[in-house]
Amino acid sequence: MQLINPNISPSGRKFLIIWAILLTLFFVVIGAFSLTKIDQLKTASAARHAARMNPTAIEVGRTAPELFLPAGSNPSKVKVGIYLDHIASISIADNTWSPEFYLWFKWDNDNLDPGETFDIIEGEVISKQKLSEYHKHGEHYAKYLVKAQITKYFDSLRFPVDDHILSIVIEDGKLPWKDLEYVSDAEHSSISSRVKLPGYVVTKHSLIMKPHTYKTNFGDPRLSSTNHATFSQHLYGATISRDGLGIYFKIFLGLFAAVSISLLAFFIKPTDVDPRFGLGVGGFFGAIANSLLSISFVADNGNLSLLDIVNNIAMITIFLTLVESAVSLYFFDIRHNVALSRSLDHISFFIIVIAYTVINIFIPIMGTI
After folding, report:
1. First and final C-alpha spacing in the chain
2. Least buried of 165, 225, 244, 322, by fewest C-beta within 10 Å?
3. At CB < 8 A and 24+ separation, what contacts does 21-30 make?
4. Residue 2, φ and ψ in degrees, nearest 5
5. If phi over 0 gives left and psi between -120 and 50 gives alpha, with beta otherwise, what is residue 368?
6. 357, pLDDT greater than 60
């Protein structure tokens, strides 16, 4: 197909070249901004995950804990192990997940009973069943089956190519770090192969002890206002990531179809106004509908997300097809320059198809790699 008709005047050729350059630059700018933004989202997510599972790192948005025990402290050691057996439910939109797990404690201080005093941080224990216990010659052991519901802020800015750390955080409800210190039983802790999540796979799991400082004395009149209690937290983290791009294409299939339909307008005579502009208008409303549907899967946090980027690029692309149709109609019907009108359609079609396809190929790649 010849993009520029040889019978077009020099001024017409100049217009087509300028149009092609501006259209290409427009998509280059949009593509560069979009891919840079997605790369930033991925980098920020990786940094949060690294800080979460680092015993000494300060997590974004949290106050710095006291990383060292007070002089002369000799806390009792309590070994903690977790076996994640099942995830009953998970909701990214509601920011909750419900694990079922085996939890055990090993300790040698006769005055402790850690299985009865632990708390689930950022969550609540739905049920707790003691399955077995052992006490002999100062050695103590207790195992529980725990069902909990945990509030988890799911960073959905990269949905649906996102990954997360599902964390179970245990903290003693009575004794601070200077009196009780958790030690991870990493050797025996694990995750069941029965743990399945729709759309995700568990890639790894790990355990750490992380101090947590409360920047308050809880109003205790016996303590000074500068007294801050630091507790030993045992953190179990399971990393989950998307299982391929299947859900990505399911969510955006309707959107890609709407853009494709709007591009068919370039093959219709500009004076056939109803089908020429109707395809673009229909595609635009289809893109809006798909946008509303896609954002219903996650909680809105007010920031620009991958969903927003993909949906906005599609709507801008469809809008450009309508603008091009109006310009093409002007040349065809007002200026009676059929050759220039058709060349404009051909050039616009190829630039938009190539640019839109390239951008949407690299968006999921940048979001996952």
Report:
1. 37
2. 225
3. 23/320, 23/348, 23/351, 23/352, 23/355, 24/351, 24/355, 26/320, 27/351, 27/352, 27/355, 27/356, 27/359, 28/355, 30/313, 30/316, 30/359
4. -85, 120
5. alpha
6. yes
Domains and CATH numbers, the chain: 10-42+246-368 (1.20.58.390), 75-242 (2.70.170.10)
- Token pair belonging to 174: 């009575």
pLDDT above 60: residue 2? no
Q: What is the pTM of this model?
A: 0.88
Both tokens of 244, joined, read 């391929």
Using the Cα atoms of residue 78, residue 79, residue 85 and residue 90 in order, give the sign of their dihedral.
Answer: positive
DSSP of 260-314, one letter per residue? HHHHGGGGS-TT-HHHHHHHHHHHHHHHHHHHHHHHTTS---SS--HHHHHHHHH
Q: Is the omega angle on the peptide bond into residue 6 within 30 degrees of 0, that is, cis?
A: no
According to DSSP, the β-strands at 163-172 and 96-107 are: unpaired
pLDDT at 126 over 60: yes
State the chain's mean pLDDT as an integer: 91
Tokens standing for 39? 């790369």
What is the rounded distance in angstroms from the CA atom of residue 34 to the CA atom of residue 32? 6
What is the reported pLDDT for 341?
93
Q: Residue 25 to residues 20, 31, 256, 313: CA-CA distances in angstroms? A: 9, 10, 22, 14
Q: Note whether 45 and 155 are within 8 A (CB).
A: yes
Residue 310: closest CA among 232, 227, 235, 367 = 367
Range with the lowest mean pLDDT among 114-123, 166-175, 217-226, 317-326? Answer: 217-226
* CB atoms inside a 10 Å sphere around CB 272: 12
The tokens for 300 are: 């809105």
- pLDDT at 280 (0 to 100): 94
- How far is it, in rounded angstroms, from Cα 127 to Cα 72? 38
Task: Give the number of other Cβ atoms within 10 Å of residue 23's Cβ.
Answer: 18
